[in-house]
Amino acid sequence: MALGKLPRVVLVTRPTDYQALLMAHGTREQARFILNGHGQNLDEVEAQHLRTEQALASVLRAIPLTWRRVLLDRADLPAFVFEPEDLVVALGQDGLVANVAKYLEGQRVLGLNPDPERVDGLLVKHPAEAAPDLLQDAVAGRVPVEARTMVEARLDDGQRLLALNEIFVGHSSHQSARYRLRLGDREERQSSSGLIVATGTGSTGWARSIHQAHHSAFTLPKPTVPTLAYFVREAFPSRATGTSLTEGILGPGQTLVVVSEMNDLGTLFGDGIEADRVAFPWGSLATLGLAQERLNLI
Questions:
Q1: CA-CA distance, 288 to 268, in Å (whole number)?
Q2: N or C: which end of the chain has fewer CB within 10 A?
Q3: Which pTM was predicted?
Q4: Phi, psi of 212 (to 5 degrees)
């Protein structure tokens, strides 16, 4: 912390399911009417919202009045300018940490779980009630930090995509994706349901399910180890396409090169956020590998 500069906490949240229902239907009673028509109950969704609101209030109270603070909605992340010494607090589901990670340059992230009965807590590791001690310890440098590996895709037109869990390459309508895949001196034309390149953090989710379905012989990477796993989904063998280059590990300095043979519906996106995708039309080249950035997770 720079001498004389007050700590700044950037508290990142996202709308709850209850708030999303209100935005979609206008009023609480209209939302209740719509859910009742589907045989669903608003009460549980509202109770979850109240737990999150209570957690938010307790975290805000835990931030000393002399510190600087910013309350930031997830939707505003792309336009927000972080300071190098910000303490970033993600209050919500595990995916919120992944949403935040790609906008940071070394800032530490504290994940707080507003509802441990519903949220797994793989990335939001700490209960919201622990915020008073955690904030003080974090600012004083008394907390351990995991430097988690991230994955990047660089396109030949200069665009770059960064992700904490995985990057998907494929067809935006989930039809067969056609492309050429190159790893070192091996190259293969493929038709598949797309491919993912995953970090150790992502190895608890999408990559894990593919790993199990493939009965893969190798071990998935750990979150802090600088290796990635890649998987091709449902590769189709034909006269023109092969299935010999469908999974493996990428270490430091190794990259996977993909050349699109799709028209205007080829796409790349990270961490399951399809709305934040990059177009990947015919002839475009993407190079996927380890990112220089790491997520510094408390």
A1: 11
A2: N
A3: 0.90
A4: -70, -40
HSE toward the beta carbon, residue 62, CA cutoff 13 A: 23
By CB atoms closer than 10 A (0-12, 13-18, 19+), residue 180 is: middle
| CA nearest to 169, candidates 262, 294, 250 | 262
| Cα 207 from Cα 229, distance rounded (Å) | 8
Cα dihedral 47, 50, 54, 60, rounded to 10, equals 150
For residue 214, count CB atoms less than 10 angstroms from its CB and return exposed for 0-12, middle for 13-18, buried for 19 or more: middle
The amino acid that residue 240 corresponds to is: A
Take residue 143 and report the two structure tokens written for it. 């907390």
End of a domain among 101, 123, 143? 143
Q: Are residues 101 and 25 in the same domain?
A: yes
Q: What amino acid occupies position 284?
A: S
- Tens-digit pLDDT string for the chain (298 aa): 555 589 999 999 999 988 898 899 998 888 888 888 888 888 888 899 999 999 999 999 999 999 999 999 999 999 999 999 999 999 999 999 999 999 999 999 999 999 998 899 999 999 999 999 999 999 999 999 999 999 999 999 999 999 999 999 999 887 899 999 999 999 999 999 999 999 999 998 889 999 998 999 999 999 999 999 999 999 999 999 999 999 999 999 999 999 999 987 899 999 988 878 899 999 999 999 999 999 999 9
The token pair that represents 121 in the structure block: 């807590």
Of 99, 127, 143, which closes a domain? 143
Range of the domain at 117: 8-143
Separation CA 107–CA 219 (nearest Å):
30
14 and 139 in a common domain: yes
Same domain? For 283 and 158 the reply is yes
**End-to-end Cα, the chain, rounded Å:** 17
Does residue 45 sit in the same domain as residue 173?
no
